[in-house]
Amino acid sequence: MHNYQDILQKLQQLELKLRYELLLITKDISPDASPLAHAAALGDVIDYLSQVKLTNTDLFARLMKLDAALCQLDLGLYGLCSDCEMDIETSRLQQDPTEQRCSNCQQKYLNEHRLELRLNH
Questions:
Q1: For an engineered disulfide with 44, which of 11, 21, 40, 95 has Cβ 3.0 to 4.6 Å away?
Q2: Per-residue pLDDT tens over the stretch 35-67
Q3: DSSP string covering 41-70
Q4: For 30, which DSSP code?
Q5: pLDDT mean across residues, the chain
């Protein structure tokens, strides 16, 4: 169904792009973060963003999805919905190789999240 090497290459290209974004964001916050953005393990990068209070950023969310996709690929679970465990549509994975949900579960998630937002305000 999915070619491991092709998926890995797409995820690695995305990781390079996200690490570059991290470098741009952190250069003003912490000049010593450059080695972290270049060579640190992805988990260490995520931990660093937590330490500097950047967990509410889009970059943090994308790094978390990337980390999950890489783990799923290693475990042989890539392309399975994290909610229903059915196959995620190929078109969704082509659009975003870090996608975690099939379209049905994503819609349910968005509906539930909207309700949570209304209850919080």
A1: 40
A2: 777 778 999 989 988 888 889 999 999 999 999
A3: -HHHHHHHHHHTT-TTSHHHHHHHHHHHHH
A4: -
A5: 88
Q: What is the Cα Rg of the chain in Å?
A: 16
Dump the DSSP string for 67-105: HHHHHHHHHT-TTB-TTT-SBPPHHHHHH-TT--S-HHH
Domain-wise residue ranges, the chain: 1-78, 80-121
**Higher-confidence residue: 105 or 27?**
105
Q: Write down the pTM of the prediction.
A: 0.85
Q: What does the alpha-carbon distance between residue 10 and residue 97 come to, in Å, rounded to a whole number?
A: 7
Residues in the chain: 121
